[in-house]
Design brief:
Number of helices of chain B: 15
Strand content of chain B: 15-25%
Order of helices and strands of chain A: HHHEEHEEEHEEEHEHE
Distance between the termini of chain A: 10 Å
Strand order of the largest sheet of chain B: 2-1-5-4-3
Largest interface: A-B, 27 and 19 residues
Radius of gyration of chain A: 18 Å
Largest sheet of chain A: 8 strands, mixed
Shape of chain B: rod-shaped
Number of strands of chain B: 17
Radius of gyration of chain B: 55 Å
Strand order of the largest sheet of chain A: 3-4-2-5-6-7-8-10
Distance between the termini of chain B: 52 Å
Oligomer: heterodimer
Shape of chain A: globular
Structural class of chain B: alpha/beta
Largest sheet of chain B: 5 strands, antiparallel
Strand content of chain A: 15-25%
Helix content of chain B: 40-55%
Chain lengths: 194, 616
């Protein structure tokens, strides 16, 4: 499947200013909107962190053991993402399962990790990915050719917007199914033989 | 006719159609109300479902900030033709994607989402539906669709109108058919009633076509018509008989007058031969007797009919009464040259009653027999005992009675064999009196005839008084010892009556005085000291009761036998007379035989409270 060319439509400035004013005025009442409201332009790192957390909801975690134990997202080679993720996850859960974030080095053990984000700053990402895959960890990468390292999901920047692509064979190798609903919003999906 | 028909049919039609319309309208209102409610429910449920599907589909696009995908997801809503616009908002309230049906403008899309729920404005319905995934709020779906309950209502009302018109037409048709069963019999009865009232024709009858209440009405109506018809006929009949009676009465009363006038003329003529004068007198007496008998009969019938005539019940021998009657009628029978046979049971036949009345009955029957038999006929009278009855039969070989007349022969004013040319006529009162008197005695009278010209037989049957209760036989026939000479006072304010009674008594050789008021009577009593006094009860100055009391108080007059004379023979009068001290009581017109009995001293004392026979 070839992703269609898309254009990002930035919200008009005036509308944003009004939004900010309205949000400030309704500060006490509209607390649910506060995280979005406090930053004018979310950074790529924040978006990626948010996506990492949201991916968890679209993945059928097989053999991930005890549901009461937190689903741990490991982050390597991107401190910004690790920091943003650490800010998001506390107190939140996916399908009733708590989520935790952990910053990792390539040499660290991958025990207890459900999803591993291999940042652009990671040395020999393919090896890490291979090791993670063997341990049943779903690997997420970033970069133009991220999927080549063997990751299941790869962040790409398209028209200044963070998107992602999916490799179904990789996900299969890690032993987890990715929801078709997630595939619907992926930029690209690699299937068998692709 | 047309008015009556329209009125009852019209009212039933209005009734039924009004009921139908009301029922239809009520059910229609209920149906429409329910349907509008269901319509709204269905619409909101359907829109909600739509929104939920959209929410599920667009959740990933919202989560991963992909407006293009959201746009694509949203465009599937176009298959719902009622949906005009749809929109997706992000969780922070931005418009994320929108769909506008071709031909609609995007103006209607709100800039920001509102609280979840439905909003109905005019002919549109809108819904906001929150998108939540894994407990995370992601955004809001907005759908706006056409909502046309009113056009639906219009369709509904159109259908209902058609149904109602069809129902009414059908109801009217069925009504027209069923109504005939109700109105037709009523209209028929009404028609018959109109004919009855218009033509006074009571012989028409309504036809009964149903077996319900209307059928009962028809029956009752016909029954009343029959009754009216019967009564009208009876009335006509009675009227006709009354007219005939009056004519006969006038004739009968006038008949004797001509001979009497002739006789008077003869007597007045100086020098007429004595035997002629004698014949004239005899003729006058005969004619007078006939008139008196006629008037007496009429009075008796009238008394019985009005319940004023009671008969005294004293035991007497039927044979005596028969003998009296035979004596009275023998001259008449002889005058018509009939052969007359009398056969009487040798044993006494005692019955309770009034012998004078019974003699009257038999005399009447004998008279009739003699009258309705051509001269030279044969008349027989038998008195015999049959079981516990004394039976008196009077038979003749005269004109007889037609079978169809037998039943009514005892009715008042009915005359049998009446024809304008007949010599022998009568009032038709005699047989009525006979039956009434016999019935007062607890007996029966029957008539039998083999037909016109075959003669007739009347039988009077009277119950015998107690078995074997018989009075020693008193020799029948006139061999009575002569009455001794008595002193008699007659007091009556009717001068003629007093004078005539005096004349009769004087003729019998008694010493008689007459007075005409109570005071004179008292004085005469004390001066004349009579053995017998006949006192009228209703005298001026001193009435009979008071007079009797005073006489009883006075030792000089206390022993006198006093007799009350009155026009009324009621129980009360008898009782009061006895209390006042009267020895006995006579009802005017007085029977000379009774007076003779009293003067002879044979009068039975007045019974304590004589029990009168009630008229049946």
């Amino acid at each position: 499947m070839t992703p269609e060319p898309r254009s990002r439509i930035p919200p008009p400035r005036a509308a944003l200013a009004r939004r900010a004013a309205a949000a400030l005025a309704a500060l006490a009442l509209a607390c649910a909107w506060l995280p979005q409201a406090r930053a004018d332009q979310p950074t790529d790192a924040r978006v990626k962190a948010a996506f990492l957390f949201k991916f968890c909801g679209y993945i059928d975690w097989k053999g991930a053991g005890d549901k009461s134990k937190p689903l741990v997202i490991g982050v390597m080679g991107n401190d910004d993402v690790a920091a943003e993720l650490a800010a998001i996850v506390p107190g939140r859960n996916v399908n009733g399962r708590p989520v935790a974030a952990r910053r990792l080095k390539p040499s660290d053990s991958l025990d207890g990790i459900g999803m591993l984000f291999i940042g652009a700053g990671t040395d020999s990402p393919a090896r890490v990915a291979d090791r993670a895959e063997k341990k049943g960890v779903l690997v997420v990468s970033e970069g133009e050719d991220g999927l080549l390292t063997g990751s299941a999901i790869n962040f790409v920047i398209d028209n200044d917007r963070v998107g992602f692509e999916v490799s179904l064979p990789a996900a299969e190798r890690s032993g987890h199914d990715i929801s078709a609903r997630l595939l619907a919003v992926a930029r690209r999906v690699l299937r068998d033989g692709a | 006719m047309a008015r009556a028909r329209s009125s009852i049919s019209h009212r039933i039609t209005v009734l039924v159609l009004a009921t139908t319309v009301t029922a239809l309208a009520l059910s229609a209102i209920g149906l429409v109300a329910y349907d509008l409610h269901a319509y709204q429910q269905q619409w909101t449920r359907s829109l909600d479902l739509q929104a939920e599907i959209l929410a599920r589909a667009s959740a990933p696009a919202l989560a991963f900030n992909d407006p293009q995908t959201a746009q694509k997801d949203l465009s599937i809503i176009r298959v719902r033709e009622a949906v005009l616009v749809a929109a997706i908002y992000t969780d922070d309230g931005r418009l994320f994607a929108s769909y506008v049906r071709p031909g609609q403008t995007a103006d209607g899309i709100p800039e920001h989402p509102q609280a979840d729920g439905f909003r109905i404005t005019g002919d549109q319905i809108a819904v906001f539906h929150r998108v939540v995934e894994s407990g995370e709020p992601l955004g809001t779906i907005y759908i706006r669709a056409t909502y046309l309950p009113w056009s639906r209502l219009g369709d509904y009302l159109t259908i209902l109108g058609v149904v109602m018109v069809a129902s009414l037409v059908l109801a009217a048709l069925i009504l027209g058919w069923l109504q005939r069963g109700i109105t037709a019999p009523i209209l028929e009865v009404a028609g018959v009633a109109r004919r009855v009232m218009g033509q006074r024709d009571y012989s028409v009858r309504a036809r009964k076509t149903t077996d319900d209440e209307i059928g009962e009405l028809v029956d009752a109506f016909n029954g009343m018509l029959a009754e009216v018809e019967r009564r009208t006929e009876a009335l006509h009949d009675a009227d006709r008989r009354k007219d005939e009676f009056l004519a006969t009465l006038a004739h009968e009363l006038r008949n004797p007058l001509a001979p009497i006038r002739n006789a008077v003329q003869i007597l007045r003529t100086p020098g007429s031969p004595p035997d002629m004068s004698q014949r004239a007198l005899e003729m006058m007496e005969r004619q007078l007797r006939q008139m008196v008998r006629l008037v007496d009969d009429l009075l008796d019938v009238s008394r019985i009919t009005t319940g004023r005539l009671g008969v005294q019940r004293t035991p007497f021998d039927v044979r005596e009464a028969v003998a009296g009657a035979v004596e009275m009628t023998r001259p008449f029978i002889a005058s018509r040259s009939h052969a007359f046979e009398v056969e009487v049971d040798p044993q006494p036949l005692m019955v309770d009653g009034d012998s004078t009345r019974l003699a009257q009955v038999i005399g009447n029957l004998l008279n009739n027999a003699a009258k309705y038999t051509e001269p030279g006929g044969r008349i027989s009278l038998t008195v015999a005992r049959e079981d516990r009855d004394a039976v008196i039969r009077v038979a003749d070989n005269g004109v007889g009675i037609a079978p169809e007349s037998l039943a009514g022969i005892f009715d008042m004013f009915v005359q049998v064999g009446q024809s304008p040319g007949r010599v022998q006529t009568g009032l038709g009162v005699g047989l009525t009196l006979v039956r009434q008197l016999v019935e007062l005695h607890g007996g029966t009278v029957t008539a039998r005839s083999d037909g016109l010209g075959k003669g007739s037989e009347f039988a009077v049957r009277l119950p015998l008084a107690g078995e074997g209760a018989s009075r020693p036989d008193r020799e029948a026939g006139g061999n009575e010892p002569p009455v001794p000479r008595r002193r008699v006072l007659v007091a009556d304010d009717n001068v003629d009556f007093a004078a005539s009674l005096c004349a009769v008594l004087e003729a019998q050789g008694h010493d008689v005085r007459a007075v005409h008021d109570g005071v004179d009577a008292l004085a005469a009593m004390q001066a004349f000291l009579p053995e017998f006094a006949f006192l009228d009860l209703g005298m001026p100055k001193l009435h009979g009761y008071e007079l009797a009391r005073r006489l009883r108080r006075d030792p000089r007059t206390a022993g006198c036998f006093i007799v009350a004379l009155t026009g009324w023979g009621r129980e009360d009068d008898r009782h009061r007379a006895k209390e006042a001290g009267f020895d006995t009581h006579l009802v005017k017109p007085v029977d000379p035989a009774r007076i003779e009995e009293i003067l002879r001293g044979e009068s039975p004392p007045m019974p304590p409270r004589p029990k009168a026979l009630a008229p049946r």
